[in-house]
Sequence to fold (364 residues):
Amino acid sequence: MESPRDSRTAEQIRKSRNRVLALSLAAFVVLVFFISIAKMS
Amino acid sequence: MKQALPPAPSASGRGDCRQPPSAPGVPLPADWRDLFALTKPRVMSLVIFTGLCGLIAAPERIHPVLAFTAILCIAMGAGGAAALNQWWEADLDAGMKRTAGRPLPQGRLDRTTARDFAGLLCAGSVFLMGFAIGWLAAAILAVSIVYYAVVYTIWLKPRTPQNIVIGGGAGAFPPLIGWVAATGHVTLMPVVLFAIIFFWTPPHFWALALFVKSDYAKVGIPMMPVVAGEKSTRRQILAYAVLLLPLSVLPWWLPGKEHAGAVYGIAALVLSSLFLAMAIRVAVRERTGPEDRMKPEKQLFAYSVIYLFALFAALVVDRFIVI
Fold:
């Protein structure tokens, strides 16, 4: 069974990973936008 | 906070998960830091730098956003190939002191996650390069990934002591990709830049292999010092260092508009002469015994990294300075 301490650790890891994933996706969207502008100019 | 966990036991040796001692069967999720470590960030920095230098040294200019995207794709491709390498070699890495602390041998990451992450990076880098920059650059990037992950890691490395000579080609692609991203075509200059890294790789890697020889011998990888012996490896380090001297100066003497100037030429001459002097020092000595700290070999390895950084930096500086 998962102990409360392990569950906290798992939660922290998941949170920080999701934050990095969200930032990466946002950065990708911004990059695609700027690539489109650059290709059109 | 990141937690160091022991490797999870597995009958198959593949598909292990990160598991805390108190909770068998309940894997912890992959930490982004471990995923990042899979991309071998230190190696990637050299790849990014040489790719950037190839892009800047090219005679044509591209939009800064596209230049950034090209370098990002090179970094993603290199990171993906490195992650594939670690995924494939996790068992070997566990047996070597130098690599035992990596996320997979430590059991901090499961292999399926590592493989999927690597695949995503490789495929993403090639498609982004193709759509944003051009399909020739994307094709060369794809070849470099397959070259490193399949030709070198899976095929050559466990089979032949020439693994690093032929496999060295994988690390030589970035300036070529950078150049092609900027110009859209392959010419003589980026091929010479490719050749410089190709001939630099054996002395760089064999200097390392000399002082971690026992690690490679333990896991059965036929590195040159393990198979051919130290004496032969030292001689071959010297041979490649001799070849590297004229080759590194070659961009100065190339015909046409692409050639490098005197700033690069003089820098290449000085840097390569020093490289040769250090290689001679390694070539003429013998290991004095188990207590030998292999200082000249470690110095050659450290200098070889500085050498490549400095040589490509000189190429870029040369583009902006007219004598």
The radius of gyration of chain B is 21 Å.
